[in-house]
Amino acid sequence: MKKLWAWGALAFGLLYFLLPLIGMTNFSLKMRRGEYSFDAYAKVLGDPQFQQTFTYSVTMALVTILFGVILVVPTAYWVRLRLPGLRPYIEFVTLLPLVIPAIVIVFGYIRLYNTSSWLPLTGSLMGTNLLLMFGYATLSLPYMYRAVDTGLSSIDVRTLTEAAQSLGAGWTRILFRIILPNVLIAVLSGAFLTFAIVIGEFTMGRC
Question: In CATH, what class is 48-206?
């Protein structure tokens, strides 16, 4: 009976995720009435404006992933190694982007970094892109941090660090040559979630 319930739950989950995708695909292939074709895809992919915006979104996603890795991996590693008492507070802070609406974060950034502030990032294209990247990194922080923290929990961080130090490795080598390769799958999981968030985020890009 338990197996039957398990298979039933699995089937329900698959249908829940697959049916909307099937419906979306079916709709997108029916640009011509009564027949299937790839005309809609050809029209969208051939639009220069779409190519430009999609390239920009992918670039922002990659930059955000790089920034997130540089920010989160050393932080999560150091908290696990030296500051375990701070873990509840760090987890609380990283959960805030899930509680605070994106539109509130956007207006907070604009208020802090407009042209009349002490750090006017909105006055130039480079500054605006930088501010947008920070916003995307904030939205993806809960997913990136938890993915990396879960990866770190699966390895013995202290033993690996002490072994590397006994062989003369510095902190940079320990972090990027020992710790990062051991949590690479977790980092990639966080990176894929970050990519999906940046590609699908509308509020920040619109504002």
Answer: mainly alpha
Biggest CA–CA distance in the chain, Å, is 71
Structural tokens at position 89: 């507070």
3-state SS class at 207? coil
Q: What is the pLDDT of residue 180?
A: 92
From the CB of residue 22, how many other CB atoms can be counted at a distance below 10 Å? 10
Structure confidence at residue 104 (pLDDT): 81
User: Cα(110)–Cα(25) distance, rounded to whole angstroms?
Assistant: 38
Query: Which residues, at least 6 apart from 113, have a Cβ–Cβ distance to it below 8 Å?
Result: 119, 120, 121, 122, 127, 131
| Domain locations in the chain as residue ranges | 1-46, 48-206
Q: Which two tokens mark 121? A: 């990032």
**Range 72-103 burial, b when 16+ CB lie within 10 A, else e:** bbbbbbebbbeeeeeeeeeeeebeebeeeebe
The closest alpha carbon to 194, from 53, 58, 64, 56, belongs to: 64
What single letter denotes the amino acid at residue 103? I
List average pLDDT for each run of 10 residues in the chain, which is 207 residues long: 84 93 89 84 86 89 94 94 90 90 79 72 79 89 94 92 91 91 94 90 61
* Structural contact between residues 183 and 155, judged by C-beta atoms closer than 8 angstroms: yes
